[in-house]
Amino acid sequence: MSARTHARSKVAQGFTLVEILIVVVILGILAAIVIPQFTRASESAQASSLASQLQTMRSQLELYQVQHGGAYPDLITDGWEEMTAETDAGFGPYFQQAPRNPLAPGDRTAVGAAAGADIAWIYDADTGRIRANVNTTIPKSVLEAAGLTEHTDTVDGDFEGGADDA
Q1: Residue 124: which H helix or E strand, with range?
Q2: How far apart are the first and last CA of the chain?
Q3: pLDDT band at 164 (very low <50, low <70, confident <90, very high)
Q4: For a Cys-Cys bond, which of 19, 54, 97, 110 suits 15, CB 3.0-4.6 Å?
């Protein structure tokens, strides 16, 4: 082997700049495809959590109503206190803590009669109907995949749990 051939073999052992740039471009393309999938997975998990919470809340509200002679709790005036402590009738607590709406703007436990900036849950004490006030930046397809349907009489993202509508 001559000195010239030996010198070339040492130089040929590394990667060229073009090869490195191609690998970086491929990694960039893969990252651009994968990263949005993680964002959607997080939104999907939050929507599923919300659907599950709505179902649990509706069940607990119905239990409260049965145990209290047909009356629903006044969540708008009293907040979650009636549901997180033992009631005067000796029933409860129905929740360990106030339910948090993972997709709500502002205070994630606040209850109101209508959608608003600081309202997480929209509640009707006469019927026991509870809905979630949802941040409207979440795509509707993600909410619908979790079994949530838009309630059309409010402007805000007011969503209901699928089959358990009151």
Answers
A1: strand 121-124
A2: 87
A3: very low
A4: 19
The DSSP letter of residue 110 is -
Counting other chains too, the contacts that 79-85 makes at CB distance below 8 Å and 24 or more residues apart are 79/109, 79/111, 80/109, 80/111
pTM greater than 0.85 (yes/no): no
DSSP 123: E
Q: Which residue's structure tokens are 């007011």?
A: 158
Report DSSP state, residue 159. E
Tens digits of per-residue pLDDT, 123-137?
Answer: 998 999 998 888 767
Closest by CA to 54, choosing from 94, 101, 91, 97, is: 101
Helix (H, G, I), strand (E, B) or coil at 158: strand
User: Residue 11 — very low, low, confident or very high, per pLDDT cuts 50/70/90?
Assistant: low
Bond preceding residue 36 cis, omega within 30 of 0? no
